[in-house]
Amino acid sequence: MDSSNLKRRGLMFVLSSPSGAGKTTITRALLKQNENLTISVSATTRQRRAGEVQGQDYHFMDIPEFNKTIDNDDMLEHAKVFGNYYGTPRGPVEEALKNGHDVIFDIDWQGTQQLAEMARDDLVTLFILPPSARELENRLRTRSQSTLETDTQIRDRMSKANDEMSHYSEYDYVLINENIEKTIDQAQMILDAERLKRRRLVGLSDFVRGVKDGL
């Protein structure tokens, strides 16, 4: 068997963090740097915002439709966040992995736990921490100038961050985002290393057997 015939199964690369810690910026950078990486488009019951595209930003659903996908086992994970439901459709992810494509996820700890229960061998998890509570609040307030979030909403996000960060130890990797470029580089190194894991190579046993037979 020629080594060129070896195939690699794709992986699921989960990035989680409190709002404002940098995961969206890191996710966009990794997508730009990696042709073989696609983002999982979540389903949600929240209202579509101006400029958002169905099937590109989210799969927008009403609550009965969302519940039907859960009943049909068509969601890899789902959770309720700030009063709205979010979930990961199963079909597109499984197809990508089978074809050797990696899928990046921007989900919280609840979704990560569910993915770990269903597909641990395919999963790589990374938690992004802010350098301090003060810096996290500064980032949220800077962002609020464009998102028009109120002080109450910012306080809610800070409160939720406290709960989210208590789950850092459940992740494979943890990065402290003091410098965004450095953190992007570190996330890329993790992704590169995980792609080389032995268990992701399909047909490796046959290849080794062929080499041994030639000795």
CATH topology: Rossmann fold
- Rounded to the nearest angstrom, the distance between the terminal CA atoms is 14 Å
Please state the CA-atom Rg, rounded to the nearest Å.
Answer: 19 Å
Briefly note the structural class of the backbone. alpha/beta
Strand order of the largest sheet: 3-8-2-9-10
- CATH class category label: Alpha Beta
- The number of helical elements comes to 8
Please tell me the CATH architecture by its name.
Answer: 3-Layer(aba) Sandwich
| Overall geometric form | globular
What does this structure look like?
- By secondary structure, the protein is of the alpha/beta class.
- The protein has one domain: Rossmann fold (3-Layer(aba) Sandwich), CATH 3.40.50.300.
- 45% of the residues lie in helices and 21% in strands.
- It is built from 8 helices and 11 strands.
- The strands form 3 sheets. Strands 3-8-2-9-10 form a 5-stranded parallel beta sheet, with helices on both faces.
- A hairpin with a 2-residue loop joins strand 6 (75-81) and strand 7 (84-89).
- Helix 1 (23-33) crosses helix 7 and helix 5 crosses helix 6.
- It is globular.
- The two termini are 14 Å apart.
- The model has no long low-confidence stretch (mean pLDDT 90).
